[in-house]
Amino acid sequence: MNTLFLVLFLTTISLSLCQESPDPVRDIDGNLLRSGTEYYILSVVRGMGGGLTLGATRGELCPLDVVQENQEVDNGLPLTFTPVNPKKGVIRESTDLNIIFQAQSICVQSNVWGLVKYKGHLIVSALGMPGNPGQETINNWFKIRKYDDDYKLVYCPTVCSLCRPVCGDIGVKIAENGSRRLAISDVPFKVISIKTSYNMMKPTVQISYVLFLAFIITTQSIPSTSASEEVVYDVTGKKVLNNVPYYLGPVIWAKGGGIKLTDTKNTKVCPPYVVQDPAEVNIGGQFRFTLSAYNQKYLLTSYGLGIDSGSPKKGSCYNSTYWRIPDTEAKAPSNLIRTGGAFETAVSCFQVVDYPKPTSPKVHSYMLQHCPSFCGAGPRTCFNVSLYEEKGVRYLASSGTTPFEFVFQKPK
Predict the structure, then answer these.
(1) CA-to-CA distance for 106 and 127, rounded, in angstroms?
(2) Which label site among 17, 63, 154, 352 has the fewest CB atoms less than 10 Å from its CB?
(3) Regarding the domain delimited by 22-213, which CATH topology (the fold level of the hierarchy) does it fall under?
């Protein structure tokens, strides 16, 4: 009897030792994907979008969900992978893991991926909880599986033996606002990871190089210009021209006048700040929005640009009239918009986006975001431009409050 037990015990051990661990996941260079190391997940097919990032997809500023960048030159936000056993340093195929964006946002949320139900769809949010595998966290565990010669993301957690979750591939689906939102889909999103310290080349070279090494996105048919990267319109419904002066004003003029620079003649402020005129009868100054892509005729939303206050004037206060924010994550006065910037630099990099809940459905209204990483080094997220009032002066700043809603008006 004891001999039989010993044979069975040794046989069990032998079978356990023979079971191989799942294959490790490898990045674009063939290196092992490691827990805690920051990576990008990128798209490389031209015209089919960029990396993964956070975005508002539900008609409100918060919460933020997991979306794909619209421009293929945008890497998205860095993220890390943490396996269900945090002591394991290597990420392996078909193993439960948490996926976490390593970035700050305007919303109070964890940035841990989690599956939520929204309007009949199972979408990937960033509201999950890290660790603690079990029934309470079952929505927060994803897997990476081999798919052809690349990988795909899968939701099919095995952290709860009593649970029966809905399993499915993670794909790209177009949200109501045009965002390329990640969700359970019949068409998998084929992916590969790039380490954030990877020596990225210029965008035109980078795309060609990675095309042979990385992955292909297969998703539903998407038009070449998505709803999130559209032409901007002025208050009369005409297309806003790129690199042409316009007035910027509120949708409701009873709430103040147009945008202008502070008057350096009557104050000692130098360089000038960008402020809202307190009198609704004043239309403000003229500002020139210039896209980083010089060949565009019209201004586009969700595209990096510089904002120029006009031709330089005499005096040290007007060395440069490009808008800039010295420190977008700081408090006033460092987060106030002023002149003195330079085109296509991190401190002077902005984008125009549609206002999520327009005051008037009959008028095209927009908001500004400061996006340092679009033009250089800086936080890999965009910061809303709001009104910050101090001593009766309404400054434009990255203050984190309600974004400033404005319209374009072409000078006569």
Answers:
(1) 13
(2) 17
(3) Trefoil (Acidic Fibroblast Growth Factor, subunit A) (2.80.10)
